[in-house]
């Protein structure tokens, strides 16, 4: 894990980051191990906050860190938050409990199912905390429309984001804290996957548009899928092929050959694709399907993030 933590820290220190203006920090809930908070960044004054009279959504962001580290206000995210704000999108960056912090993980053949159950529990804890933040936004006026949210996450945060959207479409005990009609307006996943103990994910109602970014050589979060009976680790490629495409759901996937887990850190560089998705799929509600393999030298390759789960745990 030390190698991975050092890699992330190195990126944060070397990124040449500027501060973004914080509109407010709010306490969401008290948990056994921590206080959950969220930060709000409102659209930049004078920015265009609607398209043809339709309001742009806010992005609810869930940070990454393998469920063992990370924070909602890491300096690394600030240039991307500012880019969103300057283009008329609010940002809400949220806390969640780190469900694998201090846990002993082993992914050999004798322990993989146990590790899958532990990871699934960490995702569920994160989903519960995300829903607490959404409930806070519903109950408190902070300048953010709680019914016009695109949920987005990086790595572990992308796993939580994908599962949060799944649970609002399939109504679980965790989603009962939200109004029955609540749905996210969209999902943006940077190197995410869904951990399942009951076969391939099934959406009981049509999911919102999903945007997937994933490196094809990702060794930390599976790009395709790993299955053991009904236990599964279902990555972006398998979700698109086996669920979204088969059911004619709205999605866009960008696949990056030669990239590993660095795509989880490439929010800023992939802004043009995000912008099209937000404007067309989300705001204009187009049924627009994209499946693209991207070879672009302009997309940074963070070789220090060419990691596996064994480097994290």
Kindly describe this structure.
- The chain is of the alpha/beta class and 313 residues long.
- The chain has one domain: Rossmann fold, CATH 3.40.50.
- It contains seven helices and 14 strands.
- The termini are close together.
Summarize the structure.
The protein is an alpha/beta fold and 313 residues long.
Q: How many β strands by DSSP? A: 14
Can you list the strand order of the major beta sheet?
Answer: 1-2-6-5-7-8-10-13-14
Total helical elements:
7
Mean model confidence by pLDDT: 91
* Rg result: 18 Å
Order of helices and strands: HEEEEEHEHEHEEEEEHEHEH
End-to-end distance, in Å? 5 Å
Q: Give the helix/strand class.
A: alpha/beta
Question: What is the CATH topology?
Answer: Rossmann fold
Count of domain modules: 1
Poorly predicted runs: 1-6, 8-17
Please tell me the CATH architecture by its name. 3-Layer(aba) Sandwich
Q: Provide the β-strand percentage band.
A: 15-25%
Q: What secondary-structure arrangement, pairings included, does this model have?
A:
Elements: H1 2-14, E1 24-30, E2 35-41, E3 50-51, E4 54-55, E5 58-62, H2 78-86, E6 91-94, H3 112-139, E7 149-154, H4 156-170, E8 186-190, E9 193-196, E10 210-215, E11 225-228, E12 231-235, H5 236-244, E13 251-256, H6 271-283, E14 290-293, H7 309-312
Parallel strand pairs: 5-6, 5-7, 7-8, 8-10, 10-13, 13-14
Antiparallel strand pairs: 1-2, 2-6, 3-4, 9-12, 11-12
């Amino acid at each position: 894990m030390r190698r991975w933590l050092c890699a992330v820290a190195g990126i944060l220190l070397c990124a040449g980051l500027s501060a973004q203006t914080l509109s407010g920090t709010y306490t969401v809930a008290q948990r056994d191990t921590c206080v959950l908070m969220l930060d709000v960044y409102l659209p930049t004054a004078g920015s265009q906050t609607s398209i043809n009279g339709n309001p742009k959504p806010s992005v609810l962001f869930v940070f990454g860190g393998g469920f063992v580290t990370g924070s909602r206000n890491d300096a690394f995210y600030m240039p991307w938050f500012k880019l969103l704000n300057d283009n008329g999108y609010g940002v809400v960056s949220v806390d969640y409990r780190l469900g694998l912090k201090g846990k002993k993980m082993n992914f050999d053949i004798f322990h993989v199912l146990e590790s899958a159950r532990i990871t699934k529990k960490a995702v569920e804890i994160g989903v519960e905390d995300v829903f607490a933040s959404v409930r806070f936004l519903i109950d408190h006026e902070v300048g953010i429309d709680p019914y016009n949210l695109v949920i987005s996450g990086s790595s572990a945060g992308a796993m939580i984001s994908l599962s949060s959207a799944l649970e609002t479409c399939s109504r679980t005990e965790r989603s009962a804290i939200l109004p029955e009609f609540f749905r996210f307006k969209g999902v943006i996943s940077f190197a995410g996957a869904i951990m399942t103990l009951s076969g391939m994910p099934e959406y009981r109602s049509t999911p919102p548009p999903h945007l997937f970014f994933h490196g094809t050589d990702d060794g930390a979060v599976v790009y395709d899928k790993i299955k053991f009976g009904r236990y599964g680790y279902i990555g972006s490629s398998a979700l698109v092929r086996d669920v979204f495409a088969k059911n004619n759901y709205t999605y866009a996937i960008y696949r990056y050959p030669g990239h590993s887990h660095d795509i989880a850190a490439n929010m800023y560089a992939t802004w043009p694709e995000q912008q099209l998705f937000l404007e067309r799929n989300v705001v204009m509600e187009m049924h627009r399907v994209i499946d693209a393999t991207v070879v672009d030298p302009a997309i940074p390759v963070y070789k220090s993030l060419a990691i596996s789960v064994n480097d994290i745990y």
